[in-house]
Design goal:
Largest sheet: none
Number of helices: 10
Order of helices and strands: HHHHHHHHHH
Distance between the termini: 14 Å
Strand content: under 5%
Amino acid sequence: MKTKFGMEENSLKKKYTFNWQGAGALILGMIGGSLIVAFINVIALFLFKVNLQYEDFYLLLANAAGFLGAIFAFDYFIVRPQTHRKLNFNFSPTNLMTYLLIFPMMFGMMLIAEFITSLIPISGPFFGEYYQYFSEMMEKMTKDKATLIFLAVIMAPIFEEIVFRGIIQKGLINKGVNPWTSIFIASVVFGVVHGNPWQLVGAILLGFVLGMVYHKTKSLLLPILLHAFNNLVSALLIFYGNTENFADTFKVSEVLLLGLGIILFGTTYYLFMKKYRVHYAEN
């Protein structure tokens, strides 16, 4: 529907923005959701003498509660007062050529990120102890492959893309922050919350691709699919190669994979960003 000035009605709707209040809402919401699950576990301990933390489903429940709490808090305390509407996102699919460009672009950045991550030490007085602690912590999470796949390939991509791209990045752009700056900020925050230097670099670089794709296509579906693709590949490498490293798994030179990644990413980035028109509809 168009107004008498010929502008789309959607363009006149107020848009939510992201600031320190939004960050506070996300953090408090995540804490609140996590506390609810922790309270349920306390009740289970007292009434049934069962510690749910040792159950595989508890990891999924805790993760979902934290993110849902964060999303609900941002919606209720930020979005609705600002826009008088509920928080909503565009999950529209796009044309085939877009997929044929963004998946190779993502894979190219995965190879680049692997090389850069390999330069971070895993031994020494600081990095050695930290790496050992991080490795042991990851091993204790769960040994059930189905749980890990569901968490890494389904839950994490959906929740994390909603928060980091759909809320933080889009909220910054709505506020008037330069899109590239917004993508950078969201990517850095995305990397920092992973909590360790070996995932930090990769998360920032891959977050850049996810943010760029979201900004151009305006659909959260695409970064969710790319995020799921990255996590699935990592999970398969761990399951069948005992490592997340392509070079170790396939006995290929890291420099060779870096070169392949640069060529693959550079080519598809140029085609996607400079030469190709993406067909989308903003929500």
